[in-house]
Amino acid sequence: MDLPEIRRLNLTDELFICSQCGYCSSVCPAFKELTARWESAGPRGKLLSLKDLFLGKEKITKSFAENVFKCSLCGYCKEVCQVSIDLVSFWQSVRAEVFRNNLWPSSLYDLKESVQEEHNVYNMPNEDRNIWSFEVEDIIEDRLNSDAEIGYFVGCVSSFTGRLSSIPESFVKILNHLSIDFTLLGEEEWCCGSPYLLSGAYPLAKELAEHNIKKFEQLGIKTLITTCAGCYRAWKDEYPHLGRELPFEVKHAVEYIAELVDMEKLKLKRVQDLKTTYHDPCELGRISGVFEAPRKILNQISDFIELPKIREESRCCGAGGVLKITNPELALKVGFKKIDEIESLESLGVDTIVSACPACYLNIEEVIRERDSYLKMRDITQIVAEALGL
Amino acid sequence: MIQKKQLEADLAQIFGEDRVSVDPYELAHYVRDIAELPGMTHLLFKMKPLAVVLPNSIEEISSLINYCIIHKIPIIPRGAATSGYGGAIPVTEGIIVDIRGLDRILKLDEEKLTVLVESGVVWEELLEYLEHRGFTLRSYPSSARSSTVGGWVAEGGTGIGSLKYGDVKAQVNSLEVVLPNGEVINTATGIPSLEISDNVTKYFTESEGILGIITKIELRIKLKTALKKFVTVFQSLESLYSCIMELVEQSTPYHIHFMEKDYVNFKIAVKGEEKLPKNRYISLIVYENDPDLESNVNKLNEMVDRNNGKVLNMEIAEAEWKERFYPMRIKRLGPSFVPSEVYVPLSNLKDFILELLKKFKNERLGIEGIVSSNKNAVVMTFFLDDERKQIPFLMGFYRSFEVVTTAIDFEGKVYGIGIWLAKFAEKYFGKEHLAELKTLKSRLDPHKIVNPNKMFDVSTRFGVSLNPMLTLSVPLLRIGRKFFPPSRHPIFGIILLLIIIIAIISGVFWVLSTFFNIELIDLASVLLGGEY
Predict the structure, then answer these.
(1) How many residue contacts between A and B have a Cβ separation below 8 Å?
(2) Residues of chain A with C-beta less than 8 angstroms from the C-beta of B29
(3) For residues B429 and B151, what is the distance between their CA atoms, to the nearest angstrom?
(4) Where does the pLDDT of residue B522 fall: very low under 50, low under 70, confident under 90, or very high at 90 and above?
(5) pTM for the whole thing?
(6) Domain A107-260 indexed as CATH 3.40.50.1860
(7) What ipTM describes this predicted complex?
(8) What is the CATH number of domain B4-100?
C-alpha cells in the first residue's frame, strides 16, 4: 500500500536497509516493559510490518496502530541502529500514516479537541495561561507582549500544572536578577504543537507553529528561550521543516544559563548538601545533542554524580512520545526502571534527580511517589534559582 | 491435527491468554531470522507456525513439551533470531517458543568465577552486569547487543575474546535443558532417562535446539581487565596477513578483527567520515592489560613496522572497538546483502580471501572477520545486492553457497548448519560427534517434537530432501545470475527462473529414477496419496 508520509521523507529504502539485527528492540525501554513482548510490538517487528505494508502484503490494522504508540520516541533505537536508520523521523512518519488512516488511540483525539479549541493540551481556557506566574506577577506584567530581544516560551505543561509553576517562576526570577529584558506571549501563547508532531499530525502542528512564530516575530525577538525539552525540540528541529526558517535562534534555558556562566554574567554559588544526578531528557539530549550545559551548571552548584548510562545512552523516563497520554501505565513502568537504576547506586549518595523537562519531571516525580523513594525530583532552573538565593 | 481454537485454548491454560498468539499478523513476524530469504523458501517449507508462545518459566516450557508430545506438535525454540542459518525458523508446522522472557541473571559466584543465567538474557546486559561488579565475560558474540545467551550457546560459534578464551563451548560449564521427552536435566550430570551419567554438555552446545530447550546456563567468567586497543593499517593483504600470523604466533592477543580494503571502503562510504584510510587493509588488535602487555605491545609495534604498516591513534582504536558490534553497517549500500560466514584455517586465510576476490571480482563484495583461535579465522562475506530485484536476488544466493564450498576447498568449514547447510554437518561436527548427535536425537525425540527437520537431512514440504535440490540449484543459479544481472528487465528473469525450476525438478526425478529406482509414476502415486 502507499505510504505517502514515509515516501515524503524518502524513507522507503530504509525498510529494505534494516538488517533485522534487533538492536532496536533489545534496547527499547517501552518494549522491554511490555507484559508480553510480542515481536510485532518492538521496533524490529514494526519495521518488518511496515515493509509488508509497503509491499502490499498487509494493511494498517488497529493492532499495528496500537504498537506504533507503544513507544516514547526516546531515540535509543536510532542510537544503536546497525545501519543508521533515522528511526525517530521514521516513527513520527509512521504515526502520520496512522493519523491519515484515522487509527490514532482515542486519547489523542481527546487531546486534539482540546488543542484545537483551547490551544493548550489541558483543555483549560487559554486566558489562564499565566496562572503559573502568581509569585512573579509584578515582574512579568509589563513584559507580556512587549518588544524585547529575548522571548520566553513557557509551554503548556509548566503553565497549567500547579506544582510545576516554580519552573517558569524560577527562570523569570533568574532573568530578572540579571536585569535581562525579555518578553512572553501570555494568553497569546499557543501549544507548541509537540504532541501533534510526535503523533504525526503535521498539518495541525503547522497552524500552531505559524501562530507562535508570527507572534514572536512581531515582538522583534532575536532569541527564543524555553524551559521545556519538548517545546525546545518542536521549535528548534521541527518548526523549520513546517514551512519556513525561523527569524530568531532557539535555546533551551540550560544552554542560555550555561552561556551566562561562561561569560561570567552569572556566578553560581554551591548549594550545601545537595547531591545531584542528571537525567538527560531524550528530546534535549539524545535527539537535540544538548549534554554539556546542564552538567556544567550542576557541577558548579552541587555534588554532581553521573549515572553509568548517560548522554546518548541515557535511559528514557517514559514520559515522551505522547506515551504518557496514550499509555500512562506503560510510561510509569518505564519510569520505574529509571528509578531502579538510580536507587541501585545508593552508595554513591545521590539524593536529587535533576532534569530540564517538565514532562520528565512529572513522570519521575510520580514514580518516586509510587515507589515511596528517598529521591527528590527538581528542575535545573529551580536549583539555579536556589543557588542564587532567589 | 488439533483445531486452531482448541490449540489456542489449551496453550492459554499453560501460558495465560496474553502470552499465546495464533494471530496471522503476529505469526508472520516469527517466520524469519536475520537472513533475508527469497520468497521461494515459503514454497519449499511449511513455514507458517501454528502458534507462538512467550514462556517465562521452566514449568511452562515443561508443560508445553508434555502437551506437544501428546498431540505430536513440533516445537521451534527461538532466541533473538540474530543468526541467519534458519535454526530458529519453522520448516514444519509447529509452535514457536520465544525464550526471551527467561531473562533473569540468577547467581554470580565470585569464588568459582561463574554466573548462572536464564537462556533469554541478552549478552550485552550480562556483560554490563558483570563489569559493574568487577567481572567480565571471557568471550561473547558480535551480536551481543541483542542476541541471547541461550541463542549463542545453542547456535555455537566464536566471538570477541575467543582468540584468547575459546569458542562458546569453552565458556559453558553446564546447561539446564528441557528434553523432548519432558525430562529436565542438568547436562553436567547426564541424562537419567537414558541412564547416561556422564557430562553431556558438549552435545547440547551447538546443537541448534534440536535436543531440547535450553533454560539455564552456567558460564565461566573472569575478573575484569582493562583492554588496550590498536588499529593497524597495511597497504596489501599480504602485509596484513603476515602481521596477523606473527602476532598470533608470538604474542597473546585478546581479539583480532580484520577488514579487506573493499569492506573498509564501504564502511567509509557509509559512515561518511575519513577516520579510516581508504584502500587499506585494516585490523583491530586488542590486548588485555596483564603482565605480558608491555612485551605484547612491543612485539606488535615491531611486527607492524616489519610489514610496512602503521598504527593509528587511540581515538580511532576506541571507535573501532565500539564498532565490534556493527559488522553489518555496510548493508546501507545494498540495501540488501547476501551474507556468508565460514571458518578457514589461518594458514590458508590469505589464499582463501584472494580466491574469493578472484572469483567475485565484478561483485560488490565486503570481506571481514576475526581470528577465532591460533589455528582458525572466521570470515564473513557480504555481497551487496537489492532484494527488490527479486529474481536476480534469488539467483544471487549461489554466492553464499560458493563461499562455503570455496572455504571447504581451503580446508575450512561452515560456521553453522541450520536449514541450508545440512550437507556440511559431518565436516562441521566430525563424523563421530555427528553420529552421537543423531543417536541422541533419535533416542530423546522419537516423535520429532523439538526443532525437527534441521541440521541432519532437511526435507521440503514435498518430502524431497533439500540437499540434492541445493546441489543442483547452485550451478543453475550461478548461470542464471550471469545471464540475468540486476540490470536486466524482470521478464528475462521470470523465463530463466521457470527454466531453472523445470531443470531442478527434472534433475530430481532423474536422480530418483537412476539411483533409487523410483519412477515418476510411483512418485505421482505417493503425492496423490492413493493408488494410481
Answers:
(1) 90
(2) 38-40, 45, 48-49
(3) 18
(4) low
(5) 0.93
(6) yes
(7) 0.92
(8) 3.30.43.10
